[in-house]
Design a protein that fits this description.
By secondary structure, the protein is of the alpha+beta class. Helix content is 45%, strand content 23%.
Amino acid sequence: MILNFFFDFILLLSVSILLRRNVSIYKILGGSFIGGVSILFLFIDLNSLTLFIYKFMISILMILVSFGYKSIKYTFKNMLYLYTASIILGGFLYFLNVEFSYQQYGLVFVNNGLSVNVIFLIIFCPIIIYIYVKQGLWLKNNYSNYYKVTIYYDNKKYLLNAFLDTGNNLVVPFTKKPVILVNKKIKVDKFFYIPYKGVNNQGMIKCFKADKIEINNLVKKNIIVGLLNEKIKIDGVDCLLNKKLLEG
């Protein structure tokens, strides 16, 4: 029961952090207590359907106690994140079971009479949840800044994964046209250089004028594109958009 309480607590805490629910830690402890005590009822002989309904109702009760009720959408989102975190930790437990061939009793795997997975849970589950929460927060904060961009130039088109970089304020001198930055190899015949100044360096960057670009469903013409020599450090991104471009 204590192990189940601990398991439910880190799950509910991860939901609270990810969704930024401003709730008391005591409410999360209350929801965890319900989850911990509910394991006692699993010893009752129930068929699969009844057991599924029972577990589902318990999870709803845990969510309501921990986060309260504001709307169906609010509760559903809490449930969704709870089950997502449960799948991640459940997969970790399954890995232990397969990798080390423990005998499984509920949430406890036993090998030669030693329940070593309790130690694994206490040590590694918070680490896994921390990684999950950190990545989830990053995606939640930055996902809206990702765009699909197509650059059209010289009868060719280039498909790019773009990120709206709020720090990219590069503009062409005199005209003040915003510049987007790409590190994809684009062969250009007509180009020019403009000065740039970064945090740790400065110099000249090679630029050209694209025929047009598409940012999701937004079409822009005569956009200035700067060609980067170094790789963009944001994972999976090969284009940095200029916030002034979208503002205009």
